[in-house]
Amino acid sequence: MDYLSKITTNGRAMYLAYDHGVEHGPVDLVGKSIDPEYILDIAIRGGYNAVVLQEGIAEKYYYEAGYQDKIPLILKLNGKSSLVGGEPISRQICSVDEAIRLGAAGVGYTIYLGSEHEPEMLKEFSKIEDKAHEKGLAVIAWVYPRGKSVKDDKSPEITAYAARMALELGADIAKIKYCGSVECFRRVVESAGKTKVVLSGGVKTENPDDFLEVLKNVMEAGAIGVAVGRNVWQSGDPLEITQKIKSIIFNRE
Ligand code: FBP
Q: Which residue of 85, 130, 163, 181 pairs with 192 in a disulfide if CB–CB is 3.0 to 4.6 A?
């Protein structure tokens, strides 16, 4: 079954991530980006393939305002604040049924690969994956190596491991951080096999060209696109950078 048809264009993907209010708090939501309506407007006018939200914003700003016909939703089903110390764990805080009720086309879940709590996240993810696929929803795995046993979360070995884990778990898309070169990201894409890979945006770069260069590299390595947040909505001109992202993702052979 093609779970990705609603959230891709010609096999490519550009997602606007906005789950940062949970993960980092309002410190990330500078200027107008504190307002979810501002983000939804960028997502729609920018022509994103989907917007990534947590349940509360999905309910109050997406569902209640009838955005279902305007832009697909990827609902994050787990999350954690940045305030908790110790080994990272992000637990499920929303269900697949709720995602369906809110009109989501896909669900997202973060796995901290290498954390002492990894088994709990793998188990939750697996249940979510079964149910989401049974209902025809796409499953996107944020696979972030993290925890005290992870020495370098951007090493070629561990990023490839993250991508492989997404394949082994049955994710349709793996959201992976950049490992530093086209060559190493090629190995990431290869490791993901039939699971597609999108770049995880990262902290806003001072020079937008630096972020765009990374995007070019991952596309050259075989990624299908990006799930980006801060580099777009923290920008002074989110639609301008969106056009550049779009042309890198979609205007290529
Ligand atoms: P950005 O493009 O802003 O990096 O967003 C991608 C994302 O994965 C978000 O979905 C999530 O909230 C955040 O990054 C998590 O970041 P961290 O690396 O701090 O866990």
A: 163
| Residue bearing tokens 């048809």 | 5
Give the model confidence (pLDDT) of 195-204 as tens digits: 999 999 999 9
Q: Which two tokens stand for residue 128?
A: 């979510």
Distance, CA of 29 to CA of 34 (rounded, Å): 5
Q: Print burial letters for 162-192: b (CB count within 10 Å at least 16), e (below 16).
A: bbbbbbebebbbbbbbbbeeeebbbbbbebb
* Residue found by looking up tokens 């989501």 in the block: 104
Q: Could you give the CA distance from residue 194 to residue 3 in angstroms, rounded to a whole number? A: 13
3-class SS of residue 192: helix
Residue bearing the CA closest to ligand 1, atom 15 = 23
Whether 215 has a pLDDT exceeding 90, the answer reads yes
Q: Please compute the mean of the pLDDT values over residues 128-137 and round it to a whole number.
A: 98
Chain length of the chain: 253
Contact 134, 91 (CB under 8 A): no
Both structure tokens of 40: 């939804």
Active site residue 175: yes
pTM as predicted: 0.97
- Identify the residue whose tokens are 């509360």: 56
pLDDT of 37-84, one tens digit each? 999 999 999 999 999 999 999 999 999 999 999 999 999 999 999 999
Residue of minimum CA distance from atom 13 in ligand 1: 20
Q: What's the angle, vertex CA 108, arms to CA 103 and CA 113, rounded to 5?
A: 170
